[in-house]
Amino acid sequence: xxxxxxxxxxxxxxxxxxxxxxxxxxxxxxxxxxxxxxxxxxxxxxxxxxxxxxxxxxxxxxxxxxxxxxxxxxxxxxxxxxxxxxxxxxxxxxxxxxxxxxxxxxxxxxxxxxxxxxxxxxxxxxxxxxxxxxxxxxxxxxxxxxxxxxxxxxxxxxxxxxxxxxxxxxxxxxxxxxxxxxxxxxxxxxxxxxxxxxxxxxxxxxxxxxxxxxxxxxxxxxxxxxxxxxxxxxxxxxxxxxxxxxxxxxxxxxxxxxxxxxxxxxxxxxxxxxxxxxxxxxxxxxxxxxxxxxxxxxxxxxxxxxxxxxxx
Length: 312
Description:
Layout: H1 3-10, E1 15-16, E2 21-24, E3 66-74, H2 78-91, E4 95-102, H3 104-108, H4 112-132, E5 139-144, H5 145-163, E6 170-175, H6 183-191, H7 198-219, H8 227-234, E7 244-252, H9 260-272, E8 277-282, H10 297-308
Parallel strand pairs: 3-4, 3-5, 5-6, 6-7, 7-8
Antiparallel strand pairs: 1-2, 2-4
């Protein structure tokens, strides 16, 4: 068994809390009393819905010391998500890891009330972490692509609406984001997860072209900020991102879905608004695939260094 396989086998399972939210608790931790009502996605979740643990005389109950929230890219494959979960779990075994997935339905069709209902268990997990720990600085948001950016914005707004407070002190990683909604890149992003069966793929691709064409007719001629542009603005809004202590942009010029110049434009705007910004530009890496360069050595070193800035 390879080291990565061994780590995956030892990693606590992901538990599905809603259609888009999953959680992994440290081994030996007391499962929070999450409430769930959903159809389980067996491709990512590996256990049934959680039940609170009672007192145990065999092993101590552990309290998570870190909170990591992964906002994954649109229609991310469970296997790819699990590699990041294992990577974090291996390096931070005492962490609570939340995974918030995104899909085209979340962006184009799901109402705000439904989105907040889906995000409610993630808010509960974040709030229970804050109440159980003496420090609220061991928190990291890891945002992937425009799909993850969209969900991150929704989560932060829902947290503020629920608590009337900004999200706790945290660091933020912008991985391959945020971009802009150009026609070509939007088609590429939405079509990346289409089925290989060509009749279905052709039909869905036609639907994507029609959808994006309507999208362009509605927003572009009237200079109305499109949904992705509004997300970009929100993630540089000092009120929404009030608890952020530092952010890092991880990107490359060879990303076919998110332009490096769009990422750098966002980071420059962030600097002007007073955010503490770090840039990590990779060479030769694809979209949400920077971790594959040099076996992930540089990538995980960046993550670790960002964590270490929280207590400084």
